[in-house]
TrEMBL record:
Single Gene Ontology BP annotation: mitotic chromosome condensation
Biased composition (Polar residues): 1-10, 285-296
Gene giving rise to this polypeptide: g838
Protein's UniProt name: Myosin-9-like isoform X1
Compositional bias (Low complexity): 69-95, 419-432
Region of interest (Disordered), ranges: 1-37, 69-106, 273-296, 379-432
GO molecular function: chromatin binding
Species the sequence originates in: Micractinium conductrix
Keyword terms: Coiled coil
Native organism taxonomy: Eukaryota, Viridiplantae, Chlorophyta, core chlorophytes, Trebouxiophyceae
Coiled-coil regions listed: 111-264, 465-492
GO cellular component, one term: condensin complex
Amino acid sequence: MEAHFASSSLPPYWVQQPQQQHQHQHQHQHRQQLELERQNAALAQRCQELQGELEATAAAAAQLSAGLALASPGGSTQTSQKQHPQEQTPQRQQRSATHTLGDGEVDREELALLQRRLAAKQREVEAAAAAVGAKRAQAAQLQAELEEARGLAAALSDELARWKGECAQRERELRTLQQRVEAAEAHAGHLEDGESALKKRNSELGTALAQRKAAVRQLEDRLRALQGSEGSKERQMEVLHSEVEALRREGADLRRHNATLQAEVQRLEPAHGAAGLQEAEQEQWHSPTSGWQPYQQHQQLEAAVSVQAVEHDEPLPLSAVQLNRNAAHAPLVPAGAVARYAKPSVPEYVACNTAGSYPSSPPSCGRSPRATPLASLAPQHAATGGAAFGTPVAASHASRPSGQLPQEHEHQQRPPAPSSHGSPASTSSGACQRDAASFLAAQLGGLGLATPGSSSSPFATEATLQDMLGRTQALEDRLLALNAERNALEAEAARMPSHTNGRTLKERKRRGEVEGRLEAIAKESSSVRLQLRRLGVK
């Protein structure tokens, strides 16, 4: 077999395919199949050549055997006799006749010739036998080679069948792999379609999310604006309620103080009236009667009250009948007693509360006996003062009118006892209410508080408050509009491509416009928030 493969042009398969290439046979199936086909063609050609040689050897052996059969003595004689039946020449006939005629004696020359022929024939037979032996040995060798070639052909056919089976298996695997590859490609196509659909859906969801974020941001801004406006309104209402409560407390304190003063005046009125009458009688005894004149204070009081009522469009607190009735019992006051009986300073609210029932004389008139308790009872402070009621004992002695008992004046400086008597009807007049309101405003201003109508109020008037609320609402609406525009521009900027290669000139200009507008909106929003913060909205 090795000699056969050495004589053949192609090396054996196991020489062509090293061991390391057997691990990658599935990658070289077509090349191996072509090589096997070439080897099979070479083996078939070699078999044909051997078959021709075998047939030639068989023909040569047949010829040799035929030659040997002819070379045998009997056979050769008979054959020669059969082949040359008519070869006897006249000389040979004569010679044979001579032998026969010589009583059975054979010619020596003929005998030598025959012996020589026989030796030549023997040599030929020996050479033919040697040639036949060689041919037989060669035939045996060729037969062995033929058997070996047949075995190799059978092995090669088995190997070819095995390789054909493997090739078929590889082809089936290849078809299976091709089907799998096609299925994988189809699945990859489906996945790419799904990916593109998901990207499109993602872009849509991103746009929707940006819009929802913008809407949520707008709602949050609106909520903060509403919370700020509600907080400012609540703070304003709290301030107003606190001011109203302070005014109510001050009004209640003033009413209690007024009631206490009225009760004290009513309690001290009889004693001081009697003392005044007694003093007037003493002065009448010691003074000429020509210096006395009837007191006309009710006329001046009626004129003053009428003027105040006309100026403020209010009803008169006292009718003319009451004034005439009071004037009938008016005492006579000396004209020269004005300097001696000068009335001390009285607070406005005390004068207003007692002006209806207890008239006091102007500075140009003499002191009335009915005005003495009020003048001695009032504290010595300014009209708009906020000091406590009452003065020390030394100050009361210094400011005590002449002719008044010290015990009585000290009794007047004690805090008055509460009384169940109501306030006079004159305390509800418009002039007294305005004086009380001005006095209360002065006291609240001194305490750091403010009234709704005063200039120190943070809201001044109702019109100012409404104007502030209107400005706040307008600023909040403007802020909401700016936030909505900013959200729309941010959504548009998010939809624009981020890279600069795919943008057109129009898109670049639009992006610049959007960025500029966003900066302007940010500046305007900060300005609006600053104005809202100045108005008290966080």
